[in-house]
Amino acid sequence: MEKRYLYILLTYILMQLSSIPVAIIIKASSISKTYYSIIGTSWTIFSFTVALIIMVYLLKPERNLRKHPDAASLGMVIIWSIIGIVMAMLGQGIMNLIQTFLLGIEPGSENTQNIMALARATPIFIIVVAIIGPILEEIVFRKIIFGEVYKRTNFFIGALASGLIFAVVHADFKNTLIYLTIGFVFAFIYVQSKRIIVPIIAHSTMNAVVVIAQLSISPEELNRMLEQYEKIQMIVFGG
Prior knowledge:
By secondary structure, the chain is mainly α.
């Protein structure tokens, strides 16, 4: 693995861990819950932005490298991005059904709920969710982790490894199948297009759609929808 890739991974790890001492300091200061949320969200935005700047700088030498001869054209970038969005949405929906009706896992994600709570409290946080986060994650999980494992093994092992780490980082283990499915889809369109911008566009668009859809629904209405969903499950599948 190239040194700049190791530095990128280190940057991502430090970014993720940086919130721990900040949270400890904030809690020790006994400030109100409102200010706690504001400071925490501001630090997340700051740390993600700094990490993005560092990663872009470290990847700067790759601009001078010759593009893969089979790299997708601008038109194909758009097409593969759309394919990726549709596949990811369908895959997520299918995995939700499998988790709910076959594995008995209740629908919903605590990670998503926490993110949406931050987005409602601080709308600027949407930039992290829909733009900065997907860029960082695709560089780390698809370009580096998947790319390096894929070169040494095969597509399945590379996608599985990057997908599992992707799920672990999100700390949403009950939805591991969903994260794996999304990881496989993004790895697939990356390999097919030979352009990292493709999974970035697909990932950003999917996150933006989810954020907009959930922000347009009040938490109370969302809870009612989930309750109705559970009632339908009991009627159709007997519990």
